[in-house]
Design a protein that fits this description.
- Helix content is about 30%, strand content about 25%.
- The protein is built from 5 helices and 10 strands; from the N terminus they run αββαβββββααββαβ.
- The strands form 2 sheets. The chain has an 8-stranded mixed beta sheet with strand order 6-5-4-3-9-8-7-10. The protein has a two-stranded antiparallel sheet with strand order 1-2.
- It starts with 6 loop residues before the first helix and ends with a strand.
Length: about 200
């Protein structure tokens, strides 16, 4: 026994007579790809498809429901994304006016002004108080709080329901991507926080 022999030598691959380690060749004919290159390209393709679906859907107009804090009710709205991918506009449907005749508010949100995009789970305290009492669990699974900066650095927010939990996740991810893009182009005003 030699005191300098390592675990390889003790595993039966050591030739005592030649004082050599027998190494089996495991070479393949194909060049191995870097481990991180494959998942990264797959993830980029997935995000590209996700963004394409989000933009196409958003430009056509997406029906949603905005939580009206004053009345504690959900009001039907439609959001649309502009063709330059710089802003999202929420407009109340003509049938969504109050019985009192009040027209619903309109929300114009520049993606560069978005400071937070939150889902209900894990951020319950940030949502309007009535959301917890009024919405069912299925509705909470579709709920989004969009916090943005208005004129004169005044924070404002829109609490709304997407059509499904997967659409909500798509919205969260894609707004984060658009926000980051705005920052890179020098059009952002705040750092985005996304609760995923």
């Amino acid at each position: 026994w030699l005191p300098w022999r390592c675990w390889i030598c003790q595993g039966g691959e050591f030739d005592e007579s030649q004082q050599e380690v027998r190494v089996q060749s495991h070479r393949s004919k194909e060049e191995p790809q870097p481990i991180s290159a494959v998942p990264r390209s797959v993830e980029r393709a997935r995000l590209r498809d996700l963004m394409k679906g989000f933009v196409t859907r958003g430009m056509q107009g997406v029906e949603c429901s905005i939580f009206d804090e004053a009345s504690g009710r959900l009001r039907p709205y439609t959001y649309t994304i502009d063709d330059r991918l710089q802003s999202i506009m929420f407009e109340g449907n003509s049938t969504s006016s109050d019985p009192s005749g009040t027209q619903p508010a309109r929300y114009d949100v520049h993606f560069g002004a978005v400071s937070e995009v939150l889902k209900f789970e894990g951020s319950e305290a940030r949502f309007p108080a009535g959301v917890t009492e009024v919405l069912t669990q299925a509705q909470k699974d579709c709920c989004i709080l969009l916090v943005y900066t208005k004129d004169l650095n005044e924070l404002s927010e829109v609490c709304f329901l997407e059509t499904s939990a997967s659409d909500r996740q798509q919205f969260l991810t894609c707004v984060r991507i658009l926000r980051r893009y705005m920052d890179e182009q020098g059009m952002g005003t705040r750092v985005v926080t996304v609760s995923a």
